TrEMBL record:
MAM domain segment(s): 1-59, 61-225, 227-318
PANTHER family: APICAL ENDOSOMAL GLYCOPROTEIN PRECURSOR, MAM DOMAIN-CONTAINING PROTEIN
Alphabetical list of PROSITE patterns matching this protein: MAM_2
Protein name in UniProt: MAM domain-containing protein
SUPFAM superfamilies per UniProt: Concanavalin A-like lectins/glucanases (SSF49899)
Organism per entry: Takifugu rubripes
Upper lineage: Eukaryota, Metazoa, Chordata, Craniata, Vertebrata
Domain of life: Eukaryota
Pfam families noted in UniProt: MAM (PF00629)
A GO CC term attached to the entry: membrane
């Protein structure tokens, strides 16, 4: 059984992973690496396997929903609670994802609001365990969400504290169709007292409907502002998507100046060091083929504005022939 998988570049830096598991029989783990593109390295180190009383890896800073609900509980005041499911177990009237975000397979679990089961306007909510106050700079909660289909519903995140009376502060909201993609969201948590985070889904009028979340991660420090991505941590809200001719799809890679490869910039623009990261179009070598290769990076949907500005630092080297790159926007 595959319990964890990553594919494509993870940036040239060490990344941490933890998995919770249970087994009534002796078990073995197998770590398998498979060659993908035409260059790259995969390394692992510092493995620890140990029993834990709560069945989870402390401290739980990342939640894949693979083994458990990571301590999330139904919010008592809500109309219904969310459930941990796999993509393969959805009914036809769900618009949820076929695969989870962690593994990208039908075996991967995610948290589904089961919106198809509930009447329009009903409210389903889950809350975290009570968390310790944050540092003054806050913490960044990153998550992935899936909302596909017209009038699918609404996803809200609140921070609840217990001073005086219970108070819920709205932190983040998204409504309606966000396309057939897992989308990235992030929100800064700041509280000088113990708090809980609440994930709330409100049922929309769409006939096929669901809202799902996966891969919650909490990092120290506040989140970068919306619309800003320096590619230091990850791709922020940007996702590799299909070009007009899907056959020509190549993904943007996430590299640093230390990455191997032809024409890789030696320094990134953010940090001006070899340690900084960037998105890089790394065409697959086809010595005998002139197959078209298009890498397309798509942002999240931004709020409507009268006028706005897109700034980007770009770099192109090599290629004597007619490669091109362009920005497209649509409303
Ligand atoms: Ca998952
Ligand atoms: Ca950078």
């Amino acid at each position: 059984m595959i319990t964890w998988i990553r594919s494509g570049t993870q940036g040239s830096k060490w990344r941490f992973a933890d998995l919770t598991f249970k087994s009534s029989k002796p078990i073995q783990f197998i770590i398998e690496a498979m060659v993908g593109g035409n260059q790259g390295r995969i390394a692992i180190t510092d493995i620890m396997v140990y029993p834990s009383e709560s069945g989870s890896c402390p401290p739980e800073r990342e939640c894949t929903f693979q083994g458990s609900l990571c301590g999330l509980l139904p919010q008592p005041a809500a109309n219904f609670s969310w459930m941990r499911i796999r993509g393969s177990s959805q009914p036809a009237n769900s618009s949820g994802p076929a695969t989870d975000h962690t593994l990208g397979t039908e075996q991967g679990f995610y948290l589904s609001a089961h919106l198809w089961n509930h009447p329009v306007g009903a409210r389903g909510a889950m809350m975290t365990a009570v968390m310790e106050p944050t540092a003054s700079d806050g913490e960044c909660l990153m998550f992935w969400y899936y909302m596909e289909g017209s009038e699918v519903g609404e996803l809200n995140i609140y921070l609840q504290t217990f001073e005086n009376s219970r108070e819920s502060v709205p932190l983040w909201t998204q409504k309606g169709n966000q396309g057939k993609h897992w989308r990235h969201g992030r929100v800064t948590l700041r509280s000088s007292t113990p708090y809980q985070v609440i994930f709330e889904a409100i049922v929309g009028t769409g006939e096929r409907r669901d809202i799902a979340i996966d891969d919650l991660t909490v990092l120290d420090g506040h989140c970068p502002p919306t619309g800003v991505c320096d590619f230091e941590m990850d791709f922020c809200g940007w996702v590799n998507s299909y070009p007009v001719n899907p056959q020509s799809r190549v993904d943007w890679d996430w590299l640093s100046g230390e990455s191997e490869g032809h024409h890789v910039p030696l320094r990134d623009h953010t940090t001006n060091t070899a340690l900084g990261h960037f998105a890089f179009f790394n065409p697959i070598s086809h010595p005998k083929s002139d197959k078209e290769q298009v890498a397309r990076l798509e942002s999240e949907t931004m709020d409507a504005v009268e006028r706005a500005c897109l700034e980007v630092w770009h770099y192109a080297a090599g290629w004597l022939t007619d490669s091109e790159y362009s920005f497209v926007h649509w409303c």
